[in-house]
Every structure is written in structure tokens, then in C-alpha cells.
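wait is this the right file?? whatever heres the structure
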């Protein structure tokens, strides 16, 4: 793994959270993006080399809605950048970790992503991401 690419924070209201984090960071978000397949609207802030991703559910069955129902708002996942997501998925699977998807899927911010099941990672939801080269 190369670095912490971003930290995902589950929020109930993206507009309110966006205003709060803009004040906190002293800068504006650089991107708002919806990923309908994941049921989320996202807002991204760049802090040095690491991004903060705010995540709001777009419907009640969204994983973010379920997370907030169970655990409340707060840190949802940590995303690590990898050079070769398929190789890393294969390596982690062989190490006994549970992947939430068997093949990489398209995430926000021009990334291929894969999540690891929190049951296999000390209850921390971990995302692997690799930038899609255009
Ligand atoms: Zn993420």
C-alpha cells in the first residue's frame, strides 16, 4: 500500500457537513460527486496529500444510511492507494482477508476500488483504491 489516499466520513446532511468542514479546513471542497451505484453523494477536500471524503446516503438502503442508523455519523472508512489493485486484492485474499467485491469496481474520484469486510480487519472498513489512468 502506498499511502492513505482518503478518509471517508459518513454524514446525515452533506450540505451542512460541507459548510462545517469548509470552516474547519479553511478551504473549499474541490469536488462534489454522486455515485449512484453506491447510493452516495460525496464531497472531497484536499488536505496535503490526503483527501477527506464526506459521504451522504442518496436513499434509505444505501450502505451509508445503514451505517449511520447503526453507529451514527463519523469516520466510515480509510482508503489506501495501491499501485495494482488486482494484485493487492489477490494478496490480501490469500492472507485470509474477506473482500466485499471479487473484482474492482468504479468508485468516486476516478478510482477503481475494493472494500475489505470489517469483520476481517478489526472492525475498520478499509478501501483499496487505484487511480484510473486516462
Ligand atoms: Zn472512499
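ok assuming it is, sequence goes like this
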Amino acid at each position: 500500500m502506498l499511502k492513505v489516499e482518503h478518509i471517508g466520513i459518513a454524514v446525515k446532511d452533506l450540505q451542512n457537513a460541507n459548510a462545517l468542514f469548509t470552516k474547519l479546513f479553511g478551504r473549499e471542497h474541490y469536488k462534489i460527486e454522486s455515485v449512484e451505484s453506491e447510493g452516495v453523494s460525496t464531497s472531497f477536500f484536499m488536505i496535503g496529500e490526503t483527501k477527506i471524503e464526506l459521504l451522504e446516503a442518496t436513499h434509505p438502503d444505501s450502505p451509508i444510511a445503514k451505517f449511520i442508523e447503526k453507529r451514527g455519523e463519523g469516520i466510515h472508512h480509510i482508503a489506501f492507494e495501491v499501485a495494482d489493485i488486482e494484485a493487492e486484492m489477490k494478496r490480501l485474499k490469500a492472507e485470509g482477508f474477506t473482500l466485499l467485491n471479487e473484482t474492482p469496481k468504479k468508485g468516486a474520484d476516478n478510482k477503481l476500488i475494493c472494500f475489505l469486510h470489517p469483520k476481517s480487519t478489526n472492525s475498520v472498513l478499509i478501501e483499496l483504491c487505484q487511480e484510473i489512468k486516462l
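Helices lie at 14-25, 63-71, 85-94. so i think its the right one actually
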